[in-house]
# Entry
Amino acid sequence: MADEVMVEAKGLWKKFRKGEIYNSLRDLVPALVKRRLAGELETREFWALKDVSFQVRRGEAFGIIGANGAGKSTLLKHLSGILYPTRGTLSVKGRLSALIEVGAGFHPDLTGRENVYLYGTILGMSREEVRRKFDAIVAFSGLEEFIDTPVKRYSSGMFARLGFSVSAHVEPDVLIIDEVLSVGDFLFQRKSLERMKEVLASGATVLFVSHNLRAITDLCQRSILIDRGQVVLEGPTADVVRRYMDRSAAGPTDNGDKEAYISSVSIRDDAGTTLQFDSGQKVTVEVEITANAAAQKLAVVIECCDDEMYDVFNTSTQRLGATPFALQPGEKERVTFELTLHLVPGTYHLGAYLYRYDIQKNFDTRTRAATFYVVSPVDVRGAAHLEPRVLGQETLRP
Amino acid sequence: MTGFLRALGKHRDLLVMLTWRDIRIKYKQSVMGFLWALLMPTLIVSAGLVVKLGLSRVSGRPVVMAQLATVTLKALPWAFFVGAIRFATTSLTSNVSLVTKVAFPRAVFPLAATLSALFDFGVASIVVVIALVVARVGVSVQLLWVPLLLVLLIAQTAGCALLLAAANLFFRDVKYIVEVIMTFAIFFTPVFYEASMFGRWGTLLMLNPVAPILEGLNDAVVLHRAPNPGWTLYAAAFALFFIVVGPKVFAHLEPQFAESI
# Structure
């Protein structure tokens, strides 16, 4: 049945508690006494999901779009059965597989072979099923030679490949992919996209969360936009993406509850121009960070997208070898990059992320923070300006 | 309870694999491998014998061979209980990445911990059999009590394992409390001595639900007599209590695991 509903959420609400949580008896006992003496203490509660409802049918690819902290990952964790809603119902038909973090169940002391069996059963396969697919899993990972080596000797790339290979061989009816958690792992992103296309081709259902709006637009027919735990818009992906970009381009919203945020992003050349540049020109990009609380080991990621949100370029202070910085409350940090705009004529958008690599934490995101135009006297198209010249043109006669 | 068992049944392969993982790692990390499994029980039994010798010197009564059998027979089930409880208590908190990222019945963690301790106990049984043969204990029809007593012990252990694993997830200092209790519990449990040695106070020692099982094993295997029916019923009541309440409480708390861990 093509229009069978595979995933359905009806009025999902999820309450989280902020602030002090007593996770030891040693703290709990005095706290109970204190509460008895001082009267009921207020526990700060907030709704991470507010009345979220949607349906996804068989064979559909469904996108979930929203800014950091909007509730996307919380929603996915409900769908995959890790978190339970405070109110509302959720139903998922058939076997569900979540491509959230590959290799979460690997044990470093076990060999690749042993981990394939272990991780396979963790992902819901039977031992018999893993045995049947074992050769295919190993072949896909390309690690035949190392399969009897303990995975602690693996490089992180090999580790990820084997983990991915196992999860790619679960044959799910519903596949959940959360790319937000794998920021910076290009290989994983590309492989998960390929995998998603295969799964879709086999008639399964896919739920996709990503910051890569291009990928969502390409693959998902329908999407929802989530903001502060609420579904703001549901509809064709192109419409949802447009609305999301309009919102995030509207500038800084509420930075008060962020530990540190990007307070400004600007681009200019030596002459002080900020809007239009020549192809091949050198420009300076300035990103200013403001801290509300002490934050450490920060790095700034900048990206440049074309008008279709295709990521034509990105880099970061970390990747360029600059040392991570720390900020005290109230301090600001100004990071300046020099870029040479080898771009073809067109409209481009500059974005920035404030990121901490060692714990993979994204503090703030500003997409489309500054828009600029590139002009060129030469008519070139595509993504990069390779500065072509015609050197010669002669007819060769046999 | 039926829902709990059905969910576990669906994930029995996972339970088997996690048990196997725990066993594999334990023996992989030690150079001697399976010899380690035999060394540990031998050490425990030796410790028991030292205690026995000390007691006999004080009381002036010589050690008889049957006491070797008694010590072995009681020390190893006790080692199983302690090992399983210790390991199970931290079984959820040491698998954070799985608890917060993959969905399956979380009861597999404390149960796998219990099963891998049971495996160690199985290996250690070789030592028990050797001790029994050396002490020329002999066989009798009373041996039929052994499976029943072991089932009671496993039920108590598994139920406690579930409760403590869940408790340690919410309150991280539970594992320290368990450590302290498990370290000193050997003094309050008739492992290296008999509850009857204490006369009237022996009753107090038997209130420990593991005690009647250990004494019962000694009765059936070494003394060739039926275990005390009253105390066996007492232990059975505890086993039933733990095996019903453990899964119930665990299943009730399970929805909060991922966000509280």
Observations:
- Helices of chain A lie at 25-38, 72-79, 112-122, 127-141, 156-168, 186-201, 213-219, 237-249.
